[in-house]
Amino acid sequence: MSILVASVPSGHVYVRHLSPPSPDTTYVERLSDPPADSSPDSPWWPPRMLTSAWVDDHAADFDLMHVHFGFDALSPDDLRDVVDALHRHDKPLVLTVHDL
After folding, report:
1. Residues 6 or more apart in contact with residue 29 via CB below 8 angstroms
2. For residue 30, what are the CA distances in angstroms to 12, 26, 57, 70, 81?
3. What CA–CA distance (Å, rounded) separates 31 from 79?
4. With contact defined as beta carbons under 8 Å apart, do 52 and 85 qualify?
5. Whole-number Å distance between alpha carbons of 73 and 71
6. R_g of the chain, CA atoms, integer Å
7. Which of 43, 50, 52, 98 could be a cystine partner for 85, CB 3.0 to 4.6 Å?
């Protein structure tokens, strides 16, 4: 059984390095970043998963949300809406804190 994680952004090098080197040893699967309307150099920017609508539409697709970064592009009210949507669907939120 795997845990399905919506990592924001899953395509970032830090998040990719959280996975074990061999796919045979993992119990964690990450959703791919939804396509963004931005530069091909940053296909995960802006992070599409950080909206309450995305959480509502995809709640059955993941077990927890891991936010690495991207939240700085949103207002506190938008972030509150995302957290409220996660709460509505009983989805945990994991936040990586770094660069303090």
Report:
1. 2, 3, 4, 5
2. 12, 11, 17, 17, 22
3. 20
4. yes
5. 5
6. 13
7. 52
Task: Give me 36's structure tokens.
Answer: 């963004």
- Amino acid, single-letter form, for residue 88: R
4, 65 contact by CB (below 8 A)? no
Q: Would you write out the chain's pLDDT as a tens digit for each of its 100 residues? A: 788 999 998 877 777 777 766 666 668 888 888 876 665 666 666 788 999 999 999 999 999 999 987 777 789 999 999 999 999 999 999 998 876 6
Nearest residue to 87 via CA among 79, 97, 96: 79
Tokens matching residue 23: 């796919």
Instruction: Report residue 70 as tokens.
Output: 């991207």
